[in-house]
Amino acid sequence: MQYPKTRHTLMSLAVASACAAATQGYAQETPRVAAAGEDQPVQSIVVTGLRQSLASSMNLKRNSDGVVDGIVAEDIGKFPDTNLAESLQRISGVSIDRSIGEGSKITVRGVGPDFNLVLLNGRQMPTSNLGDLNGRAFDFANLASEAISQLQVYKTSRAENATGGIGATINVMTAKPLDRPGLHASIGAKGVYDTSNDTLPKDVQASKSLTPEVSGIYSNTFANNTFGIALTGSYQERNLGYNNAAVSNGWKGPFRGDENNWGTIPQGPSADCPQCTITNRPTGSQLYSVPQNLNYNFNGVKRQRTNAQLTLQYKPVDTLVTTLDYTYSENKIQTKRNDISAWFNFGPSSSAWTQGSPSSPLMYKEFVSNSDIAMGAADFATKTQNKSLGFNAVWKPTNTLRLELDAHHSTAESGADSPFGSSNTLGTASFSRGNTTADFSHDFPVLSIDGADFVGKPQQVTGSVFTNSYMRGEVEQFQTKGAWKVLEASELKFGLNYTKVDNRSAFSNNQRDTWGGATKPSDYPSSLWHQDTLRQYFDKIDGSNSSALFNQFYTFNFNQVRQAAAAASGLPNMYLPKNYFDNDARTEEKSKALYLQFNTDWDTVLPIHTAFGVRYEKTDVVSTALVPAATKITWVSQNEFPITFGDPTFTTLTGRYHNLLPSFDSDVDLTPNQKLRFSYGETIGRPRWDQIQGGTTLNSLVRTDGGTGSQGNPALKPVKSKNFDLSYEWYYGEQNFVSLGLFKKNLENYAGQSRIIATPFNLHTPVGGALWNEAIAKSCANTDTTCIRNYIFTNHPTAPGVTPPGVNGDVNGSIVGQPSDPVAQFQITSFSNQKKASLNGAEINLQHMFGNSGFGISTNYTYVHSGLRYDNNAVGEQFALVGLSNSYNVVGIFENKKWTGRLAYNWRGEFLSSTFDGAGPNPQYVEPYGQLDLSISYNYNDKLSFQFEGINLTDEIQRVHSRTKQQLESVTQAGPRYMIGARYKF
User: Fold this and answer.
1) 962 pLDDT higher than 50
2) What is the pLDDT of residues 181-238, one digit of tens each?
3) I want to staple 870 with a disulfide (CB 3.0 to 4.6 A). Which of 1, 35, 803, 880 is the partner?
4) Average pLDDT for the chain
């Protein structure tokens, strides 16, 4: 279906523009031309099936100003995917990040999640996500799809849209009763079977893998369609699991082959270590890294998601429509984890290395005795709630003037939903680890341990961390809009906007750094530990069948062991989270904006439609942060120097910026079915909350080479992007089209992450102090921290700050930094506007329905390129674009009166997800990932239908590496998910 646009001559436009203010009479509108300020009438299409949904999405693209893609629901209450992010990934240029096996955040045209703006019915939504405590990315996992009628993805800028979306602005539209008069109601139920729950240890596994989903929608109009009500609701449960092998604390380095620093590898066999053999040792300027630890973890997750929306509409007269709506969502997640890990001490070792630079260990072996075989557990829960109350009024006093008022108050709040906090770790260990080897030659990293003795040296509780995190986002927005139609084919849009965004992110850690042993093995009955093997939990990953794998470990119930540790230590409060926050950052952004946009058609040889717009926006930032003041550093084990914190203090900083953002869209009708588009626009993406929060926060654990921390900069300007788009579209059938788009983005004021060396709070460290230096002078190597500690305890047991093992209840002994010791240096992460970047790419789309056969195909491919990439052969902090990747989709469909089927394959190429891992400035690359999904629906009659869905049918794994493929960051195995359900329409 096509909606032609009225044209006029250049002369008539000039006359009309000059006389616009005085004009009182207007030409009669034809019924197919939109009234002033209205969107194109694509939304009036009655959607009845998957093919019609694709046709409606095609017409949305065809009739919009600029480059717009979208997805339209097949029917009221029936969106094509169970997850909105998974629907969005079908759109060219859109890629998703997955969390617990489903889509959560989106990257558009190579621009990461923080710089894509999400609107709900045209309103800016707050964000809240404990997984990324300070980000702006919207988590689509919080929204069910049943109440959604349409997704609109604006890839080019519009003056009327709120700022914040450099990659795209995504408008999520919900059903409104007056848009579809009459009674519409349905109810649906599903059973969800997640196979990933079946491949977990019993201590973390949910009792059932089959869980329910129920949803319903009711929409009706009354009083001659002047009043309408719509009510939607859904409740979903899902029990799942995933097993992960990881170098969870990152890679130490990179080092140069000719360096001799703590953590480097030896030259080869020596008198002190005749067994140290090095194969293909990196030399000279070759870079290499060594693993800090190797961890296998097993995670059981339960999720309950509740969504509801109430919409009331009243149309007292034909020219006035008012809407009041309330949207609520709640996402509750409970997580249980067990793990086993080995930490490397960077002492005597053997290793084998890859060729070239950077070089990676194919095998890394350390020679140790009576070290720890660490086995930990976690048991925590979180809850996220989103609430939005909005009012909208649209008044059309004349056929040529449309005025709109919109106001809303929306919140997003996340926090702990467990007495044990929002995350936690309870460490245990058997101190019987002998020589330890990590083999990185396959996709799965193989850990081998000699001499383990769980009977002679049973487990005991070591350290623990209980974290309480909280995040709240709040948006108050007031918008007025207007559109004035000038003669037949011109329109002036205008508006004012006020937005206040508040963000609060807070957390506290209750950490006991007794990793060398907090209690005795005898404090724990053997029945607390449950023996298991791990190979079967990674059977889909190449290398897990290795005979060298250390295949034995123990799981345990978190709370049972926590209670035993609390009783044995006599410190019950150390095994619970704090009931207050040590760190509390509160940031307020107030933005005022106005915009003008002029749309017109030109009656030239090739008809042209243009839209000129400009938006001016001014933003004030106030950031107040509560951060703990550090008081001392204590050396408690080989390479662990925890900080003691005192009372927290508040600091307040401010910032201000303004932007003038022009936009221009044009489309040329080459033929009635072919379009050529060109767009230019300037957009901004606001900094992350952690980039602009005040205060300096130190990480609680210091190493021999110093500590780390972070601080924000409220004066940061937003990233500004100049965007160019050129596209060709050919609509060669009612449901068929092909398009090719080219785009380029020039970004400036990018806040690249960097680090500075500082000495906050002037904390003294024992490293390099008089006692440390004396131990080295007597016989200890400067890397042998065990030797140094033992020397100090033996020869200076009563020195200031020294507490030998067993004294005053200190199991391992401790050494506190003294005023005569050196001041500790910290690498502080901060941000500044000093980076520029550019990216360009291409998109190709094809949608083709094969006549009346019922078969069709929808496919697209996106290519994205930027010269600003991470240099794997460079040392130190780097600025590089994250999220940059190619992607493609292939969706095959079949539909007739009884059956609807869709087989969809989505692939995303390798991309850089972060420039820092747990150890420091090292890249993290997500390897290529493809997923196959299937959905089938059978219409029993006009009212009753049955559905089957399969997600990740081929049981794909996800893998992340650092500078080389062998430098594993993590590899994850989960499993397919199946759903069967029924839906009844009233």
Assistant:
1) yes
2) 999 999 999 999 999 999 999 999 999 999 999 999 999 999 999 999 999 999 999 9
3) 880
4) 89
Instruction: Give the integer Cα–Cα distance in Å for 696 and 626.
Output: 9
Identify whether the C-beta of residue 891 lies closer than 8 Å to the C-beta of residue 855: no
- Encoding tokens for residue 919? 């150890």
Which candidate, 91, 90, 225, places its Cα nearest to that of 154? 91
Give the span between the Cα atoms of 102 and 99, in whole angstroms: 6
Tokens of 674: 């072919």
Beta-bridge mates of residue 108: 94, 111
**Between these two residues, 32 and 165, which has the higher pLDDT value?**
165
Helix (H) or strand (E) holding 509: strand 490-512
Look at residues 581, 587, 835, 826 and name the one whose alpha carbon lies nearest to residue 691: 587
For the chain, count helices (H), then strands (E): 7, 48
CA distance 422 to 506: 12
Mean pLDDT over 103-117 rounds to 88
How far CA 506 is from CA of 89, 422, 470, 689, 695, in Å, comes to 32, 12, 5, 12, 13
The torsion angles phi and psi of 94, rounded to 5 degrees, stand at: -105, 125
Q: What pLDDT sits at residue 77?
A: 62
Rounded CA-CA distance 906/859 in Å is 10
Nearest in space to 952 (alpha carbons), one of 977, 927, 928: 977
Residues 450, 511: Cα–Cα separation, whole Å: 30
The set of residues, in sequence order, having a beta carbon less than 8 Å from that of 359 and lying 6+ positions away, is 257, 280, 282, 286, 287, 288, 353, 964
The residue with tokens 């123990």 is 554
DSSP state of 640: B
Chain mean position to CA 114: 8
Which residues, 6 or more positions from 829, have their beta carbon under 8 angstroms from its beta carbon? 708, 709, 710, 711, 753, 754, 755, 916
User: Residue 918 — very low, low, confident or very high, per pLDDT cuts 50/70/90?
Assistant: confident
User: Which tokens belong to 675?
Assistant: 């379009």
Interhelix angle 785-795/770-778, rounded to 10 degrees, is 100
Q: 483-531: per-residue pLDDT in tens?
A: 999 888 899 999 999 999 999 999 999 999 888 888 899 999 999 999 9
- List Cβ neighbours of 657 (8 Å cut-off, separation of 6 or more): 618, 619, 621, 717, 718
Which structure tokens are listed for 289? Answer: 């890294």
**Residue 817 has which token pair?**
């930094």
Q: What pTM does this model have?
A: 0.84
β-strand partners of 618: 592, 658
pLDDT tens-digit map of 147-181: 788 889 999 988 988 898 999 999 999 989 999 99
Q: How far apart are alpha carbons 928 and 926 in whole angstroms?
A: 7
CATH code at 219-760+829-985: 2.40.170
Residue 653 token pair:
């900083």
CB within 8 A of 31, min separation 6: which ones? none
Confidence at 562, pLDDT banded by 50, 70, 90: very high
pLDDT of residue 261: 66
Annotated domain spans of the chain: 219-760+829-985, 770-822
The token pair at 737 is 């089209």
DSSP-assigned letters across all residues of 166-209: SS-EEEEEE--GGGS-S-EEEEEEEEEEEGGGGSS-TTT--S-S
Q: Give the tens place of pLDDT for each residue, 396-444.
A: 999 999 999 999 999 999 999 999 999 999 999 999 999 999 999 999 9
The whole-angstrom separation of Cα 940 and Cα 900 is 12
Beta strands in 399-419 (DSSP E): 401-416
Q: Exposed/middle/buried for 898, CB within 10 Å: 0-12, 13-18, 19+?
A: exposed
In the structure encoding, which two tokens stand for residue 642, read together?
């925890």
Q: 441 φ, ψ to 5°?
A: -80, -10
Sign for the CA dihedral angle at 961, 844, 152, 53 comes to negative
**Contact yes or no for 491/484 (Cβ under 8 A):** yes
